[in-house]
Amino acid sequence: MEEKPYETFEHTADVGLRARGDTLEDLFANAACGMFEILAELGNVNPTVGEEIRIEAVDLPELMVNWLNELLFRWETQQVLFARFDVQEVKETSLEAAVWGESYDPKRHEVFADIKAATYHNLSIAKQGNIWLAEIVLDI
Predict the structure, then answer these.
(1) Has residue 21 been placed in a domain?
(2) What is the pLDDT of residues 53-93, one digit of tens each?
(3) What's the CA gap between 12 and 18, in Å, rounded?
(4) Distance CA 73, CA 66 (A)
(5) What whole-number distance in Å separates Cα of residue 111 and Cα of residue 66?
(6) CB 22: neighbour CB atoms within 10 A?
(7) pTM of structure
(8) Does residue 50 lie in a domain region?
(9) Residues in CB range of 109: below 8 A, 6 or more apart
(10) Is 81 exposed, middle or buried (0-12, 13-18, 19+ CB in 10 A)?
(11) Domain total for the chain?
(12) Is residue 1 part of a domain?
């Protein structure tokens, strides 16, 4: 079985998410997928509803927080569980992506956690060798 490109780590009263990727695009996509796997069981999600997302920020850390919080906002307001993330371009201050998911159906989808927000607490994004790594604390 292939290792997932994200994992959780212990954090007082919240949950930490550690993501990795060969590119910044992979890193941002993997962070989003990891966050949604913390939020809900994605195995039953049929990613048929697609949306384009464009995000801007002053730097990469803010871009990560804005990206994840935009996805959480769409979950909260549209009740769409996203399960597929195609981050097409990440620059220092902008991101373009397409995401796909499915409207939440309590008969088919199990929600595990109420994630309120991605935070700046102990946030880090760095390239180590050929791999991009990020650590994000999610407020639950």
Answers:
(1) yes
(2) 999 999 999 999 999 999 999 999 999 999 999 999 999 99
(3) 15
(4) 10
(5) 22
(6) 12
(7) 0.93
(8) yes
(9) 40, 41, 44, 45, 81, 102
(10) buried
(11) 1
(12) no
